[in-house]
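Page 42, continued from yesterday. The earlier attempt failed because a stray header line got pasted into the input along with the sequence. Redoing it now with the clean sequence only.
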Amino acid sequence: MTTLDIIPAATIEYPESDGQPMGETDLHRILMNELIFALRWFLNDVKAYVAGNLFVYYEEGNPKAVVAPDVFVVFGAELHMRRTYKAWEEDQKLPDVVIELTSRSTRQADQKDKPALYERLGVREYFVFDPYAEYLRPQLQGYRLVGSSYKRIEAFPMYSEVLNLELRVEDQTLRLYNPETGERLPTADEVVLARREAEWQLRKELVARLNAEVRAAEQSARADAAEAELARLRAERATQ
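This time it went through. Structure tokens are written below.
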């Protein structure tokens, strides 16, 4: 008879969501996805976990000790699929950088509650961006952990020492730049467009090369025909 393993009733559950649907704007959702993609693209050869809108549990045994940053990076953590992030299963590693996209429903937490929590958790840098510029002046603000307290980052363009990236506001968008090259980190759409452009350019070059080869072959054939005709005429004269 097969014996089934029964999960004890007292097992602590760590929910994967709060049961509430995401209620942010299209712009907030697009920005979150673009920032996550850009950071994963930039940190491709670095051991780092980049995610967003995922429950981060920071106290074992306490399901209420949880936060869900819009975008976060944990250096030293493996980049693989997770249902939730539990610090005690990750060698107590917590986010090194957090980016919050503030909105009407989150502005209170983003400006007061979360900075205090992230400061206590040792998040080295915290950035908050207001896409519609309705609640923050300036609409991009950053904080860096100095000792055990956050200090406002005053320089613009805003620079992340942890990521070695610049954060720049472009209209309602937050874009990331590599300060060493001056290049802007791409979005997923830009990568797709660049790949299509490269493929199109490759096709153009291939067609041009084939056409050149055809023209060269035709010229060679005409030259051979002309030489053969000249040889025939010479042979006719020699027999006259």
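Notes: The mean pLDDT is 87.
Reminder to self: strip header lines before submitting.
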